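Kindly go through the following sequence and its backbone structure tokens. Advise at your convenience whether the structure tokens fit the sequence:

___
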Amino acid sequence: MIGNAEECVRWLFNQDKDKTFEVKEHKTKRSLNANSYCWVLLNKIAGVIKSTKEEVYREYIKNKGFFRVITMNKDAADTFIKVWEEKGLGWVCDTSESKYEGMIDVIAYYGTSSYNTKQMAYFIDYVVDEAKALDIETLTPDEIERLKNLWV
């Protein structure tokens, strides 16, 4: 077992030069059960409001998701938006006029697949609150917390 960064680097330098190694930060993954429960609620909400779970998900991403505002040349926006939205269902964009001439502000929302456990718990809480507002039965607060805390 490698004990520290210096030993790790020394070990890597002694490996076959044809091998490729990747070093990345360890991130705790969210529970698939919590993710699945989120989709169950999105589906129930969609049924009540006569929509699809995908449309509800995208709307909720815009309401309570995480995003970045990027100011860019208007000519580049369509290509950027197309590439961004190809990342997945929740990767959506809105635009607004920029204060700079010839530019546009693109609000690029991240899909939940990129969320860490804290961000996903926040999103699930929002979905649960929306379900309750529509009189949709949800798990008890303790059960929801247990789901959110079961990280794999």
